[in-house]
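Need the bound structure for magnesium ion, inputs here:
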Amino acid sequence: MTAEVPVLDLRHVDAFYGMAQVLFDLSITVKRRQVVAVIGANGAGKSTALNVITGRVAAAAGEVLLDGRSIAGKATHDIIAQGVACCPQRRRIFATMTVTENLELGGYVHRHDKTLLRRGRDEVFALFPALERKAQELGGLLSGGEQQMLAIGRGIMGQPSVLLLDEPSMGLSPKLTTEVFRDIRRIADVGRTIMLVEQNAYAALGIADFGYVLEGGRVALSGPADRLASDDYVRQAYLGA
Ligand SMILES: Nc1ncnc2c1ncn2[C@@H]1O[C@H](COP(=O)(O)OP(=O)(O)OP(=O)(O)O)[C@@H](O)[C@H]1O
Ligand SMILES: [Mg+2]
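Answer from helper R.:
Posting the output first, comments after.
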């Protein structure tokens, strides 16, 4: 029996902005149906790691594999078409477009395949009934939590192999943060694969299967999320214990 090929596999990745190296020998593996959390302080390189996956920043060394195939050096639109959806750090939903129109944009790669589009919409509305109720409302009139649902829902519309979330808790109250993380867990439980990067280590490790601690562009520590959450160093440095 062969081992399952990870959905996403970063192997020994280095990355630079100009002359400045920001990722060092970064290896991260995301297996199917897992939630993998990458936690770290401001400037640790979390968003850059996502930018390498989506092809916005080139890997100067190492490999990036999606479903076992190299995507390093490909253009962002090709990587998206191959099954990577990314919800950026600032949720860019379109305020003057309806919920339905926002979702249609997320399904753009499948615009010629009505079956896939319907499957995406059914999945999003099953996960977030509030979005179905507000399907004809403008994105800008949704609450902060609903806008986050819409941003994530837009990612799901592409029916991606992996959903990348950059700081989904940003700008949300503690209560909404709890709800959004519960949603993220539900999304994985119905079969999706998620890599999320977060400064909120407590919330992220609380729902993740596996975690990585990023410090200065390097993996300082990794392991099952529950084990990281009870690790003395992680508790002191990231959980305020
Ligand atoms: N476009 C850029 N050009 C030059 N340097 C950059 C650029 N974007 C980020 N950096 C630098 O790269 C390093 C990693 O930044 P990155 O945005 O990946 O961190 P992060 O972990 O996502 O931080 P945050 O939690 O604040 O979002 C930082 O030192 C940052 O200043
Ligand atoms: Mg960031």
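Comments: The longest helix spans residues 174-189. Residues 23 and 217 are 4 Å apart (CA to CA).
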